[in-house]
Amino acid sequence: MQHYFIGVKLPGDLACHLVDVRKEWQLEQSHKRLPAAVDLHITLLYLGAVEAEVLSELKSQLDELSVAVPEMDITLTGVSTFGNPLTPRVIYASIEDQANLHKLQSSILEKCQKLLLQVDLKPFVPHITLAKKWSGHQAVFSKEMHIERTSFTMRDFSIYSINPGEVPSYKAIHTIYLKDLTT
Predict the structure, then answer these.
(1) Which UniProt keywords apply (predicted)?
(2) Active-site residue 3, yes or no?
(3) Among residues 127, 137, 146, 174, which one is catalytic?
(4) How confident is the model over 68-114, as pLDDT tens digits?
(5) 127 among known catalytic residues
């Protein structure tokens, strides 16, 4: 069965910049998976396997957010890790705490729970995965890794299908556009 997540795709120029910066860190020596630029995203909620009827209803439920949630600026603030800092299972670009982003994620979670989806209930830590799956070859993470503070405007989010072994691995199957505050 097809697996899905709800997320925010990065603007192409920012994604390419992050991949260029990541190359300087030589993370291929320490991690098994380095997502392609086209796959860089912020996960709002992992869904896993979803039945077609439930997915259709979820699309309708999420469309309601387009009139309630405004576009928002997302700011990357640096580099951090999940797991042991010396052998991190994930190295990621950290994102500045943003109340509207957390509110959006909570709204999405609530809609999924009402549809009885078995979703991940771990605390939401907005981030952009740059490398994952520690290979065990060498300790690479250091305080020398940094990303300049940069921002982009989040205008939409999507439901993505997960397609392992393909590039792109994640394909938007339904996009929800946020309320434009300039009009």
Answers:
(1) Hydrolase
(2) no
(3) 127
(4) 899 999 999 999 999 888 788 999 999 999 999 999 999 999 999 99
(5) yes
